[in-house]
Amino acid sequence: MSSTVFAASTGLDFPLAQQLTVVALCALTAFLSHLALAVFNDGVRPFMLDFVQGRTTRSATTAVSFGLSAGFIFGLGAPMALSSGVLNPWLLFLPTDVLGILAPEKWLAPLLGGAWGAVVVFGLDGANDLAHDLPVDFLTAMQQMATPILFLFTLFPVLAITRQFGRLRGALAGGVELALVVLTMKVWPEVFAGAPAMAVGVLLLIGFAVAKDVRQRRAERDTAAVVTSTRGQAPGDPVAGKGAASGGPGVGGTPGEVDPMVSLFGSSAARLRRHLPLFMVLGSGVCLLAQLHVFGGGEATSFLIAKGQYAEAAQVDFYRALGFIPLIATTALASGAYGIVGFTLAYPVGYLLPSPWLAMVCGALIFAGEVLALSWIGKVLGGLPSVRDSSEHLRAAIGDTLQLAILFGSLLAAEAMGGGLGILIAGGLYLLNEAVGRVVVRMAAAPAAVVVTGIILNLLHWLHLFTPVKS
């Protein structure tokens, strides 16, 4: 595999069956959002509890959802789909979050969601063709984003290890990953060079976290044994053995007292389990969409799907899921609203399955397992604090690597369109957004700046003030 990666196709002209699948899935996701059973935006999910319990209005929740989603829809989702030729969750599911919550009636939500799906699959291809016919083809230039996104994304385990376990282990992980990338490019050139490196990096992170939790538990057991032994030797100690005898919480606790957080988590999990058949249908749709290979679950995955490297895409999205499972599980248990794409495990499974029917069955089973296991996952995460912290570091590292990669790739795209003038305009728009307090979220600001730069360069060309770099 070359060290430079471009998307293989930028066409969005899907067959009718695939278009109808997208429309139906958008209708379903809007319906679930209307019922406050699931939303895609992790930032909106915590607000759903107040909405469910009637402490906030539908219009106020809609405003929150739109405010947290608009930048990602128009700044990241649409440019990424147009440049890669592959749909993504920001473009499909963030708008259905908003439309579902906005709809005042239950029957209207799927109509609005389906209408958005129709706009995407029937309208985006026309916009794609129009953009490619412009004198300055900024969509083709945006394929320059693929290389930095794919290769810098490889480093997210190194960043997570460094943040959680220090410089020495971070440097060790970085050296191992670099050696694996070089080895893969030399020995297995047909394989995406970052795939084996990411696998080893994630395994190192999990290994460090589990080892730390094991050591901590062993130390706690030793301390508890010493305390018990000491109290057993102190005659008349009123506290010793109280907890063990009662079976209650022991020192500082009140037998029979119910933790309000445990009660909330239990009621949320029960609410989601009551709608299990609906979630199984949703899982079928998400896994089917991934199996059709017209959809990529992440920034890096979109370009890998476009290149037809489905195994590598599955691997990338699986690692990404590890960073988001604790967040999705805890916010779902706290709010009673699940993730529209679940733990995102349906993505990698769908990419690899050979049959749409098999994908529908597997997607339903995956979502059923996830919903039924939510309470257990919450308890496990409570007992493995370092593993839970690792997911937070992974998520932060993914955000950092992607921000740099998207910014770097966007400047490459701007340079491909207009040379130094392109970099000046795109970089200037990015910096202006930072200076005014990030009107557009940082992750989406650079691709949005490239699109605006492309429009400006075309206007300058029509005014005979600019000659495209490539005619």
Automatic annotation (TrEMBL):
Keywords: Membrane, Transmembrane, Transmembrane helix. Residues 222-252 are annotated as: Disordered. InterPro entries: Uncharacterised_YhfT. The keyword Transmembrane applies. This is Permease. Pfam families: YhfT (PF10797). It comes from the Bacteria. The chain crosses the membrane at residues 20-40, 141-161, 168-185, 191-211, 276-298, 318-345, 357-377, 404-432, 444-463.
